[in-house]
Design brief:
Elements (H helix, E strand, L loop, with lengths): L1 H26 L6 H26 L7 H18 L5 H26 L3 H20 L11 H5 L4 E2 L2 E2 H19 L1 H11 L1 H6 L4 H27 L10 H11 L11 H20 L6 H35 L1
Antiparallel strand pairs: 1-2
Helix pairs in contact: 1-12, 2-7, 2-8, 2-10, 2-11, 2-12, 3-4, 3-5, 3-10, 4-5, 4-10, 7-8, 8-10, 11-12, 11-13, 12-13
């Protein structure tokens, strides 16, 4: 039942994306050209990476609103490191970004697991704290392209087999998370905790530790994206990616990840992010104000949540009917 629901959600979303592309192509045929679609995917790559981390958090009945602030803080730190040590190899920079992001995710996870603070409260608090730390570190100053080394800014833009490295990293993360959530005990634990945390305890799953792990993964991906974002746009400042956490949550919800936990897929998250990415890139092309993106994203979230609620009610009626027949 759940697998059919997820598949149907993905098919509906894929159909919506195709209809959207057809409509856009009637106004601007060049938008659907392969080269431009590759650019759209590259623009959407940071959202895809962050949404994958957010997915595992939401699946465990939590939420991480600090991902954009994590991204910004990590991006500022690695940019500052690059100005002080421009010869530092990119793999080390990426390792620092992953580690720093994971540490911030661990702070969220520990506060939820050990202190028992609701996830939305924790991550709202750390979101503000992380932004404040950026200001303290930089004193409000920007780090611009001329202060960054060529290798630092060049890595995400380096083209391999026709795609920038930023796109390849997003594709790699999609593959890694697909295997994680479908083929590993940890992935099954995420869904078990979100589906029924009380039953998960009886199967030997530590609910708090599983949610903690989800926050660490989300933080690590936010840290990685922090480097990729700052290097690609060649600028670091306090308000970088401001409000982007809402777009990340929107990509998950539109992609079929249930806010109630226990339901979600990598394919759905990819389609949800692509839907938002296409809308964001298409609106200026067809001469529609980008501010409409907010209205379209909000409407899509409401429709997606309504769809989830309706599906859950239908599932509940099926269970009740089965119980009646059993008696």
């Amino acid at each position: 039942m759940l697998k059919r629901l997820v598949k149907s959600r993905e098919m509906i979303l894929l159909s919506a994306i195709l209809v959207l592309l057809v409509l856009i192509s009637t106004r601007f045929p060049g938008f659907v050209a392969p080269a431009n679609m590759a650019n759209v995917f590259n623009d959407t790559a940071p959202l895809i990476i962050l949404a994958l981390g957010q997915m595992v958090v939401i699946v465990t009945r939590c939420i991480d609103l600090s991902v954009a602030a994590n991204l910004a803080l990590t991006g500022m730190v690695v940019a500052m490191i690059n100005t002080m040590a421009p010869g530092l190899p990119i793999p080390i920079i990426m390792a620092i970004a992953l580690t720093l992001g994971a540490m911030m995710g661990a702070i969220n996870g520990l506060l939820v697991w050990k202190v028992g603070i609701p996830p939305i409260v924790v991550t709202l608090g750390t979101m503000t704290i992380f932004r404040g730390i950026i200001f303290l570190l930089s004193d409000g100053a920007w780090i611009n392209a001329h202060e960054m080394s060529a290798s630092f800014t060049g890595f995400p833009r380096a083209v391999v087999l026709g795609l920038p490295m930023l796109s390849w990293i997003a594709i790699l993360m999609l593959g890694v998370f697909f295997v994680l959530v479908t083929r590993t005990p940890l992935g099954r634990s995420f869904f078990a905790v979100g589906g029924n945390p009380h039953a998960a305890v009886y199967t030997g799953i530590n609910v708090g530790r599983t949610q903690f792990t989800a926050f660490v993964l989300s933080g690590a991906l936010a840290g990685l994206t922090g480097y990729l974002w700052v290097a690609r746009y060649a600028v670091a400042y306090v308000d970088i990616a401001g409000g982007f956490e809402l777009e990340v949550v929107a990509a998950c919800v539109i992609g079929g990840v249930s806010i109630a936990g226990g339901i979600g897929s990598v394919g759905g998250v990819l389609l949800g992010a692509l839907f938002l990415g296409i809308v964001k890139n298409a609106l200026p092309v067809v001469h529609i104000s980008p501010f409409w993106q907010l209205a379209i994203s909000g409407s899509a979230i409401i429709i997606a949540v309504a769809f989830n609620a309706r599906a859950n009610r239908t599932q509940g009626r099926v269970i009740l009917k089965s119980a009646e027949h059993a008696t």
